[in-house]
Amino acid sequence: GKPDEAANAFGQALQRQPDAAEPLAALVRLDLDRKQGALALLHINAVLARSPGNPVAHQLKGEVLTTQGQTDAAMVAYQETVGVAPNWDQGYQGLALAQVAAKHDEDAVRTLQTGIEKTRGATSLIGDLGRLYQRLGRSEDAIALYETVLAKNPDSPFAINNLAMLLVTYRQDAASVARAQKLAEQLASSSEVSVIDTRGWVMFKSGDLHGAESL
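Now predict its structure.
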């Protein structure tokens, strides 16, 4: 509850280790909590002046600009993040979010596709792309996305879970429902809440109302 002292401590940490991500992120969050977005940008730009290749600083700049409604400038900051850290999923995530906010949906799709390739299949980006496809009414593309992931990694609980949910949500044919049932059975031992929810949804769509209710 002493924000001025906290800001001073974070500032001292940055003086001792200018490229440290944690104190900069904490200082920026503190600035934003105090409605001081301009000060947050000053802190970020000071770091970038010393270390123009600092991906965390570029990423934080994009976040601050996004909160201020400066979408175009945010996209530039996120593009710089991707430029200096092409294997880091958060740069692509931020850029895609800014592009969606600017109603550049197809650009966001391409950004996430590129990010998945560059990060060698970051699940965070795959999940974002799947959800974006759903929002755009492209359920078949979302299904194809997880089919591709599953083909490369047949035991991926992430892909199994999401594909099962998509199949019973967007398809009604018996073959798709049966496939979803088989996928859900592979997850029967999981205690993850999202997985249990998927299994319940698959049972519901399969007509097993009692089993669905139990899950």
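The two ends are 43 Å apart (CA to CA).
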